[in-house]
Automatic annotation (TrEMBL):
Entry EC no(s): 5.3.1.1
Oligomer status and interactors: Homodimer.
Protein location: Cytoplasm
Residues at which substrate binds: N9, W10, K11, G172, S212, G233, G234
Chief localization: cytoplasm
Family (UniProt): Belongs to the triosephosphate isomerase family.
One GO cellular component term: cytosol
Protein name (record): Triosephosphate isomerase
Positions of the catalytic residues: H94 (electrophile), E166 (proton acceptor)
GO molecular function, one term: triose-phosphate isomerase activity
Amino acid sequence: MRIPIIAGNWKMHKTIDEAVQFVREIKDKVQGTDVEVVICAPFTLLLPLKEAAAGTNIKLGAQNMHWENQGAFTGEISPLMLKDIGIDYCIIGHSERRQYFGETDETVNKKIHSALNHGIKPIFCVGETLEERESGKTEEIVKNQIQKGLVNVTDEDVTKIVIAYEPVWAIGTGRTATPEQANEVIYQIRETIKELYGEGIYTEIRIQYGGSVKGSNAEEIMNQEDIDGALVGGASLLPDEFVQIVNF
Ligand SMILES: O=C(CO)COP(=O)(O)O
């Protein structure tokens, strides 16, 4: 049984007051669901959010981390520091980090190993650009990202990873992949996991869709057979929208 996981990715948004207020507004409305609820917030918000979310079913995630525990890496945050706060998840390899901050499949792989070694569950993002989709390369690109991101990840560890399929052309554009398009790529991702890890594991791993998910389209996306959750950007900043998505 794969437990659905709805994760908000707040990207670079919200002050401490706004973040704490958000949790106060949603906490009772996301209780009692079978869905795992996660907020991936900027680093400055994680500790106040941890306190605000104590005693609720809301889990926390970071949006990035370095793979080293410490060192001369100005501006970076380490897995030890995230563990110190007690966060559960970390988004790794988001397309915005690949596009603007030079993340590669190799650094993504290092971060995945480091997160797993520290008991932080990676939300591992993959997805093709519009140009790649239009030239018929979606399957090849996504398969390659999955294979390279998971190099040397063991059978035991891979089931702790949540994969997020986020077509770059659907992020923040209002242009959602159709539920069928999303399910098709997610099905292929599951097939790649089967090739890499064999029977059994591929049915256990959770795969989310991300890209312009909102209250009004969450249900049809979540109803797809292979889609186990959503990674939500813009709509996760709005309490009512986020609650509606969690309660799809
Ligand atoms: O990038 C995303 C989540 O990680 C998706 O963003 P939007 O939901 O704003 O399209």
